[in-house]
Amino acid sequence: MNVQRAQEIASSPIMANVLCDGQPIYIQHVNEQSETARIYALNHPEEEREVPLYTLTERDQTLE
To answer: What NCBIfam families does UniProt report for this protein, alphabetically (predicted)?
Structure first.
């Protein structure tokens, strides 16, 4: 995922369908300089972590 799209998702009030390693996640913050995002898995909100943006994928909700 690119920096711009990750920032759009993080700032949007609408929940996007984003995955990291196959798990649905929530993007809390995007770091432009390091191209990373602070995320947590939806089923484990207490487990925050920083991951490279290239590990995030957005699923097209219209296909489901």
So the answer is: PRK03174.1, SASP_H
How far, rounded to the nearest angstrom, does the alpha carbon of residue 4 sit from its chain's CA centroid?
A: 12
Cβ-based neighbours of 43, under 8 Å, separated by 6 or more:
23, 24
Ramachandran region, residue 21 (left: φ > 0; alpha: ψ -120 to 50; beta: rest): left
Dihedral of the alpha carbons of 4, 6, 10, 16, in degrees to the nearest 10: 120
- Please give the Cα distance from 52 to 37 (Å, whole number): 6
- DSSP annotation of 6 reads H
Threshold 0.70, pTM exceeds: yes
